[in-house]
Amino acid sequence: MVQKKSQTRGPRFIEVVSMQLDFFSRLIAWAGASASPVEPRRKQPEPAPGETALTAQARTLLCELGYAEFGAAVQVRWNPRMRSTAGTAYPARSLITLNPRLQEFGAEEVDRTMRHELAHLLAHHRAGRRRIAAHGKEWRKACIDLGLAGEKRCHTLPLPQRRLTRRHRYRCPGCAVEMQRVRPIRRKTACLACCREHSGGKYDERFRFVKIRS
């Protein structure tokens, strides 16, 4: 008569199973400890009084011109560090910053300055990667579309004036035109007039500005 094998496990089997469970427990604990913690999302600062309305107004203007998708990214912010500047446009960031002192001159001046800077964003958006002058025909066309026909390049508001010395001089190798700057040029910059005449408005290394001594 064949005897059936015992169904019970010996102490050696139980010891092996315990060792395996202990190994996997240590492995899981080590993986959890070594995992980099998830950083909490930084809370965005709350819009200052008036910023929400100005942003909405800028987006509405662009939407009316058929640029709703572009306008959805535009932001308008107050910049208390501004002194002599009324406003600034940052095309790469779709951002407009305004001097809070504009409010001293009334809502109409705030609106005009916002549209002035918005025209810069619109002009660069329309131009794409093509280089354009800061206050060239593209900007003037955008001003007209935004209701600012005959807009001037600079404001005439009684804001504190800052005198800066333009110590850096550059010359175009093509037309020999010179320009002076307060700060040195940090990236490749070519003469716009020469690039338009000889390269269809695209950057051309032949007309890259060369720094000259004062």
Q: What is the CA–CA distance across the termini? A: 114 Å
Number of E-state strands: 6
Structural class: alpha+beta
Residue runs with pLDDT of under 50 for 5 or more positions: 1-6
Give the spatial strand order of the biggest sheet: 1-3-2
Description of the structure:
The chain is α+β, with helices and mostly antiparallel strands and about 210 residues long. Helix content is about 35%, strand content about 10%. Helix 4 (about 105-125) crosses helix 5 (about 135-145).
Describe, in short, the structure shown:
The protein has 214 residues and is α+β, with helices and mostly antiparallel strands.
Please describe the structure with a list of short key phrases separated by commas or semicolons.
alpha+beta
